[in-house]
Amino acid sequence: MNASSPSPSPARGQASTATLYGGVTNRRVTVRDLAAAKQRGEKWSMLTAYDALTGGVFDEAGIPVLLVGDSAGNCHLGYETTVPVTMDQMVMLSAAVVRGTKRAMIVADMPFGSYQESPAQAMHNAARLMKEAGAGAVKLEGGERSARSIELLVEAGIPVMAHIGLTPQSVHAFGGYPVQGRGDEAAHQLLRDAKAVQQAGAFAVVLEAVPAELAAQVTEELAIPTVGIGAGVDTDAQVLVWTDMAGMTAGRVPKFVKQYANLRAVLGDAAREFAADVSAGAFPAAEHSFS
Ligand code: KIV
Fold this sequence. Notes:
By secondary structure, this protein is an alpha/beta fold. It has eleven helices and eight strands. An eight-stranded parallel β-barrel has the order 1-2-3-4-5-6-7-8, surrounded by seven helices. The longest helix is centred in the last third of the chain and has 18 residues, at 263-280. The chain binds 3-methyl-2-oxobutanoic acid.
C-alpha cells in the first residue's frame, strides 16, 4: 500500500481500520495499529535502519516499522558481532532514524549488557532510548529470562518488542548462529518463551531462525504479532537487515535473506566512474563549474 493513498483518518485516539500505511497519514504507526493488523490478518514488513538517510527512504517506501537494530554493530559500525554495541551508540543511531522519518514506528534495540543485570537497569536504559532518542518502542532479547524486565517496562508505559529463538547477543554461548527450536524440548521451550513475553506485556515478538512449522504454531497460539526472520512465511510480519535485503553486505548472507537489489555493485561502480573521471580530467565539466 502506498503512503499517499487517500483514506480517511480515524477519529482521534482510534487505531486505523485500514491497511497499516494506507489509513492515517498524519501520525506514526502505533502498537494499536499493529494489534489491529493482526486482527484483520494483514501482514507487514519491518526493516532495520541506522541513520536518517536510509530511515527516510524506507519511511517514504511505506515500511511501517523500522528497527534500529544492534545489528548496527556488524552492519554499520564494523564490529564482528552485536556484542560491543553501547547504549550511547544506540541512542545516537536511534535519534538519527527518528529525525529522518515521519510515519514509521521506530523500535530501538537494547544492546548487550544494557538490561540483563536487573529490571531496574533495563528501565534506566529503555528510558534513555525513549527520552533521548525519541524511539516509539524498545526491543530486547530473551523469553522467560527477560519477562520480569519486560513487565516493568510495560508497566512504566514503554512498548516492548521481544526477541526469541536465535538471539544474536548470545553468539558466544550458542557458539555461532544455529537454528533454534529443533527437537521436542527446544520447541516446547520456544513456545514457553513466546507465551512468557506475551504474558509480560510485549506488543510483538521477533522469532529468529526457527523452523517454519514451529513459527506457524507460535503465530497461531499468540494474540500478539510475530515478526519472523528465518522463520518461514506464516509469521504476521517479516523483518530483514536492510544491508542484506539491498545487497550491501560483503560476502555470504544467511539462507533466509532475499536480496532485492545489488547496491554494493551500484555504489562501487559509481565510485569507480567518479575516480576515473577525475583521473581523466573529465570531472568537473563546465556545467559543474562557476564562472
Ligand atoms: O539487530 C537486529 O537487526 C535484529 C533483527 C535481526 C531482528 O535484532
